[in-house]
Amino acid sequence: MSDELTVDVRLLHSALDKARESRGLSWRQLAKEIGVSASTISRMANNLKPDVTAFAAMTTWLKMPAESFYVGGPVANEDEPDLVAQLVPLLRARKDLTGQDVEYLEEVIGAAARRFRAESESRSK
Asked: pTM here?
């Protein structure tokens, strides 16, 4: 693996697409809401990286940490972040979930993740 840190453009574009669909927005509406040009998002569909300002605007709009979209470099060599910690911003950003729904899903996903981790650890012993 390269030591160069870069952005997973396809993952970022996919996250934007899911959020766009859940809000019933067109690509142009999404771009306007984020504050970037529609051509920036269009270029991402062809795996071209957005500039730093557009990347920051997109991750801020998604309410997701920029690190969620990093690949390569020293960040990739660290332990995988907690699954629930990664999913909570996505769950909270959903307009169709109440705060109580998010808390319930956090508990369910957390319990499942702990079980999977325990089973994996017991198999590796």
From this structure: 0.60
